[in-house]
């Protein structure tokens, strides 16, 4: 071997040795990460749970806060022989409970390892204090404080949702984020905003000696990590109005939704029967009772129930006719207790005939709107009724029907809007005509909507042709909402057409009793409420009562939709409920105390079949 080649080889060996020495120094001395990993078996991590973010209403009232809860933890591998009877008396449980739990931990010893598991949750403060006094007698057992949800204002149980302990399936869906004993939002805003609300867990590290006894803090506490509190959230909800809406809907099955038209902010979202916040505070104890309730209080009807819209949908068909040029406000059509075709009649109530558009909206004439939709679907501008119906479908979807609106509320459904494909499958291509699908003229048949969608229709009418996606979260210092909740969505109907329909909505409410207006019960002097009643047919019993409205007529501040199952005419229940909500919001007080009492005292849930 030449000296030059030998020198190169020696140099290479020296360089490699230096690299190895440097890496060993970094791993063993400079980097705590590897030291911590190598001593992991001798370390105990005491988890510090963060305070969950507070949920506020639009006016700064706390909807969901926090209070301290006390848990008893046990680390099975650290447990030494103890007085079972004394521990049971201290924790106010039976000896059998302690023995059963310890037997379970013994079976799962290998799986649990040195982990701490929850023995008892949410102890009363006095019980926890008694345990703290005697805890030195029970090695391996320790107390742990955490914050749990507190509800100072009884408003919005369904929309707020609940927090509960995660199970194996939840942890599998969120790998690495949770461990046994952690809590997470399971429904409502608690679920949809879990990432912001939950915060980040911290920990304190302790060293365990060869006898598995806690000896000292690791690294004098410098490696500990502080818990990061969850972010606070400001909702669009008006807590006072939400609570009032719940009182109005007590004893009814259905929904009540209110929106601020200019912003799309949801002021009230009531699903009835709903969940009281006292039940949310202890959901574990009440869960079985809730899921067995035949009225399904956990089912949020406001965003998940699909109903026929009924006569409120006549507004949409009227606007489409105006835009298509197949309807003029002065066009008059007859109605002799309905629209007659062959041996059939689509019925209507008695009223003057013929009618023009404004009167037809005011009196909610079925026959009139059958002519309106027929003229559009049979227009010469389309090659056949299938093409015309698909154009109609495009119009209807531009009002936010047929698919989820995209709100920030979880599990929102979209309803249904029929197309030519549906009828071709059902009747065969060319096997159907207008009279086959006549029921969609008045919001029946294959049309399905959610109460949130018809509240959005009310906001569209208030805005004269556009909506902002309804949403529940406001911009705040800690949470910024998506820009899509600030954009205007215009319908395919020109804004100028809306001014031709709204006078009929105003007259429906304000023409006075006996004038033919279907919603005179909703009138409040000085508020200029504009509304449209709906009576949606229901194959399972009495018709559903529907009403949408907004106020004031000019520069509207609130748009409302009330939907009450099996309650009959729109004016019977939905209209007074919606108008009382508007009066409460705009004036802060109610002038019609007798009406308010009648609504609040009524219980018509017996009309609704419980096996839905």
Average per-residue pLDDT, rounded, comes to 88
Strand-residue proportion? 15-25%
What is the domain tally? 2
CATH superfamily of the largest domain: DD-peptidase/beta-lactamase superfamily
Assign the structural class, choosing from mainly alpha, mainly beta, alpha/beta, alpha+beta, or little secondary structure.
alpha+beta
CATH fold naming of the largest domain: Beta-lactamase
What is the distance, rounded to the nearest whole angstrom, between the alpha carbons of the first and last residues? Answer: 93 Å
User: How many helix segments?
Assistant: 24
The CATH class of the largest domain is identified as Alpha Beta
Give the proportion of residues in helices.
25-40%
How many strand units? 19
Radius of gyration: 32 Å
Described by the principal axes of the CA atoms, the overall outline is: elongated
Largest sheet: 5 strands, mixed
> Runs with pLDDT <50, length 5+?
33-39
Named CATH architecture of the largest domain: 3-Layer(aba) Sandwich
Describe the structure.
This protein folds into two domains: 43-67 and 149-233, Penicillin-binding protein 2a (Domain 2); 239-576 and 590-607, 3-Layer(aba) Sandwich (Beta-lactamase), CATH 3.40.710.10. The protein is α+β, with helices and mostly antiparallel strands and 612 residues long. Helix content is 36%, strand content 17%. The protein starts with a helix and ends in an 11-residue tail after the last helix. The longest helix is centred in the first third of the chain and has 28 residues, at 3-30. β18 (544-551) and β19 form a beta hairpin. α1 packs across α2, α11 (239-249) runs antiparallel to α23 and α16 (357-363) crosses α22. Strands 2, 3, 4, 5 and 10 form a five-stranded mixed beta sheet that branches. Mean pLDDT is 88; it is low at 33-39.
